[in-house]
Structure formats: C-alpha cells, structure tokens
Amino acid sequence: MLFPETILTQEIDLPILREKGIRLSLRRLDMVHPMVSGNKFFKLKYNIAEAKKQGKNTLLTFGGAFSNHIHAVAAAGKILGFRTIGVIRGEETFPLNPTLRFATEAGMRLHYVDRESYRIKTQETFLESLKQQFVEFFLIPEGGTNAFAISGTKEILLAEDEHFSHIAVAIGTGGTFAGIAGSLFSHQTLLGFSSLKWLSIQNEINQLLELHQIQPRGAVRILDQYHFGGYAKHKPELLDFMLDFFAQTGIPLDPVYTGKMMFGILDQVKKGAFAPGSNILAMHTGGLQGILGFNERFGTKLPYTSLRM
C-alpha cells in the first residue's frame, strides 16, 4: 500500500486576491509522495490494493510518451515490487524522453502501438491480444480512472475542508473531479477546469458521475474556455503566467493541467465571478515530472521539482 508523506494546504497571497476580497488556498498534492505524486497517488492507491488482493504481480496500463500516469505506475511498481508494462501510444523514439527514461529505469517494460491501434485499446480484441502476449496482469486504464481510482480521489477532500466555499480542480479523464464531487459539502461549488478541447466534456463528466452513481451534494460547474488549444497544447500567455506565478509564490505549475486551472481561477477572480468573501481551495494535482520533457521539447525554462528513485 502507498502511504502519503504529507498533505499540505498553502494559502496564496496575491494582490488581485486582496483587491477582490477572495481567499485562495492550494492543496499541494504534488508533495504527497516523492515519486507517486499528485492525484495519481490517490488513483493508484486502491487499484494496487485490488491487484494485491487478486494475487497479480504485474500492472499493465496505457499512456502517451509524456504521461504522468505512466511515470506514476512505473514508480509505484518499483516501490511495491510489481512488474509494470506501459502500452505507449506512438513509435519508439530515441533518445527516450525523461518520462520514458524514468519508466524504463524503474523497470517498466514499454510496448509501443501505433495510434490507430491505440484508439481501440479498450476493445476486447485488443485486450485479448495483450493477454496472449503478456499473460496475467492487472489492468489499469489510461489515466487511471476507474471505480478504484474514484474511491481514492474521494479522499482528496477532507472533513476539515468544510469551510471552503469553492473547490477547483483540473479535468483530464475526470476521475479526480468525480471523486471530489462525491465528497463535496452541500454548500460548496466544485469548479472543473478542462484541459481538453472537447465540446462534449460536460456530457462526458455527467456520464462518469452516472456510471459511478455519484450525486454531488453541492453544485458542480465545468469551465472549458481555458484549454489553450487543447490537451497538452499551450500558448505564450500561459507560460508567461506560470513563470510569474512561480516568481510570486515559489510554486511550480505544470502546463497541461495546473497551469491552466490556476490561470482560469485568477481570470475568474479578475472578472468578478467570485463574491467577496469567497474561500477557494484549488488542487495541485502534480504533473511536474512532465516539465523536464516539456523544457527539452520546446526550449523553455519552466521550474519543476526534481524526482528521483
């Protein structure tokens, strides 16, 4: 079982927050574990417990070449003694980027599939081909979102968080949003900042909540205007914001999820979307490992936290 080292909540002090009479705190899930960080810690917690219960010694999962999820599964497997297999979207490319280099150093076997095959990764015929090749394994879906993951992400919101009026989180596969929705207090509003350029994101989330029989006690709202072009896309405005946020707070953000979420929160504050006296808790869901590869790929100098086995 994975155990958190710390769950820290840090209040953010910025001029715009003081001007608007808003309080904003950041739950530092990026610091919850030195290797299996962010929301991935909570998504994997009960998946790994179930794998042990079933007597499986191999974890198989899916992801792109820069995937936080691939990184986290590889680390968890190394720590807890599981063999790990990562089914990677796209062709093998050398030298390996920092994410895949870390995964292989942690003992993960990488299995590359073309993008067309990757699109059918949830179909039984494709899964059967993996079973024939790798025999027995415990399957964890891309991004980690399943019933076990949501049981874990429900634990992100704590009993002592009742005094917050708003909870904010980035949305990828939606598992963290769904788990927090299941723990929401009746007077709270959950804000999900989509990192995806999907017109159907609201329907996707509604289906996820329905599938897992989650009926939020509070209000839920999805903001889809802060994706900066789509998943893993960015614009100079976003990177400038992240560098300025780090300069003022000392907190690194990632350009895929938390950077977009924090940009959206503060933009909403500037536009008067929050009533004076609002008290917001935003979730720092990690993802900082990906900054190494991002900086290599785009020649940027975004700050990050160094992770080592």
Automatic annotation (TrEMBL):
Residue ranges annotated for the Tryptophan synthase beta chain-like PALP domain, each copy included: 19-286
Statement: the UniProt record of this protein carries the keyword Repeat: no
Cofactor(s) named in the record: pyridoxal 5'-phosphate
Gene Ontology terms for molecular function: D-cysteine desulfhydrase activity
Record PTM N6-(pyridoxal phosphate)lysine, positions in chain: 40
Keywords: Pyridoxal phosphate
Active site, renumbered: 67 (nucleophile)
Family: Belongs to the ACC deaminase/D-cysteine desulfhydrase family.
Designated name of the protein: 1-aminocyclopropane-1-carboxylate deaminase
Species assigned in the record: Mariniradius saccharolyticus AK6
